[in-house]
Amino acid sequence: MLKSLNINNFTVFANAITEFSPGFNIIIGDNATGKSHLLKLGYSVMRSLSQVTSTAITKFA
Question: What are the φ and ψ backbone dihedral angles of 32, each rounded to 5 degrees?
């Protein structure tokens, strides 16, 4: 489970730490504050981890 995310120099985030709670989290904010960037970053990270896991499983299968 993802507990926190530290973002440095990524799109609109100079330096940001986001804490997540267990269960369901809601991201709210004004327009152009980085909500969509945060979701895209999370998607990219999870997709990358998924590909690494798939590659590792394929190598050892």
Answer: 60, 35
pTM, full prediction: 0.65
Give rounded-to-5 percent helix, strand, coil for the chain.
Answer: 45, 25, 35
Give pLDDT tens digits for 7-27: 999 889 999 998 999 999 999
Spans of all domains in the chain: 4-60
In degrees and rounded to multiples of 5, residue 30 shows phi and psi of -65, 170
**10 and 37 Cβ atoms separated by less than 8 Å:** yes
For residues 54 and 30, what is the distance between their CA atoms, to the nearest angstrom?
37
